[in-house]
């Protein structure tokens, strides 16, 4: 019985710093949907909580916008609450709108692999479940080839064949609820953002300073 109290404290702490610990009832901001430029391309990545992933890609020079959403599953019209059950097949995914004249798809793939632990199965600490799994999506054969080339190199030279990242053709991307968009930027004092998102962003900035926008340095 003496172990119950510490366990409860530990569980509550995890919930406070969990990406899923934020209820849609707490905030319902209306966000204007991003309108891509004429020559803008889009890449899609999943590597844990999309609040973190969105902020990382938005710091990269050549990225015009990053939009949080859901992809990788077969459930129609997924919601944040449904995603949280881990039963939809979808993962928290970010659509990265970028200018190919300023940043290449290959560089974005390197950002993806370099900004999370691709060897973790179904999660990125402190978030675990299929909804947080690592996925590099492709739309064309060339994108698939680029992803697999980089994955193979990293597996051989860095991760000893332990990469768990899925390489999956994008079927459909569902934009997440408005209150998730630019979440880290709009909620810098939220517990998860302070404990997980910002430190993860700062680690990325330190690792890839040459890729950052001037205002993100």
UniProtKB/TrEMBL annotation:
Q: Kindly state which keywords UniProt assigns to this record, in alphabetical order.
A: Oxidoreductase, Signal
Q: What family does this belong to? A: Belongs to the MsrA Met sulfoxide reductase family.
Q: State its Enzyme Commission number(s).
A: 1.8.4.11
Q: Single GO molecular-function term?
A: peptide-methionine (S)-S-oxide reductase activity
The UniProt entry annotates the active site at 49
Q: What does the protein in this record do?
A: Has an important function as a repair enzyme for proteins that have been inactivated by oxidation. Catalyzes the reversible oxidation-reduction of methionine sulfoxide in proteins to methionine.
The taxonomy runs:
Bacteria, Pseudomonadati, Bacteroidota, Flavobacteriia, Flavobacteriales
Q: Which organism is it from?
A: Polaribacter batillariae
Q: So which residues are the signal peptide here?
A: 1-23
Q: Which PROSITE patterns match?
A: PROKAR_LIPOPROTEIN (PS51257)
What is catalysed by this protein?
[thioredoxin]-disulfide + L-methionine + H2O = L-methionine (S)-S-oxide + [thioredoxin]-dithiol; L-methionyl-[protein] + [thioredoxin]-disulfide + H2O = L-methionyl-(S)-S-oxide-[protein] + [thioredoxin]-dithiol
Protein name, UniProt field: Peptide methionine sulfoxide reductase MsrA
Give the Peptide methionine sulphoxide reductase MsrA domain ranges.
43-192
């Amino acid at each position: 019985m003496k172990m119950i109290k510490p366990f409860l404290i530990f569980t509550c702490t995890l919930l406070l710093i969990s990406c899923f610990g934020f209820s849609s009832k707490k905030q319902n901001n209306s966000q204007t949907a991003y309108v891509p430029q004429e020559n803008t391309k889009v890449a899609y990545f999943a590597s844990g909580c999309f609040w973190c992933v969105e902020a990382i890609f938005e710091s990269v020079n050549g990225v015009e916008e990053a939009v949080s959403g859901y992809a990788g599953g077969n459930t129609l019209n997924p919601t944040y609450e449904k995603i949280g059950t881990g039963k939809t097949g979808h993962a928290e995914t970010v659509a990265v709108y970028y200018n190919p004249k300023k940043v290449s798809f290959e560089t974005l793939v390197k950002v993806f692999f370099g900004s999370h632990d691709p060897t973790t199965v179904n999660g990125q600490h402190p978030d675990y479940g299929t909804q947080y799994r690592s996925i590099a999506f492709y739309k064309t054969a060339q994108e698939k080839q680029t992803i697999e080339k980089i994955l193979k190199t990293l597996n051989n030279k860095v991760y000893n064949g332990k990469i768990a990242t899925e390489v999956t053709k994008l079927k459909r991307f569902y934009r997440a609820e408005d209150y998730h968009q630019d979440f880290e930027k709009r909620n810098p004092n939220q517990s998860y953002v302070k404990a997980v998102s910002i430190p993860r962003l700062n680690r990325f900035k330190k690792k890839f300073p040459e890729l950052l926008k001037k205002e993100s340095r």
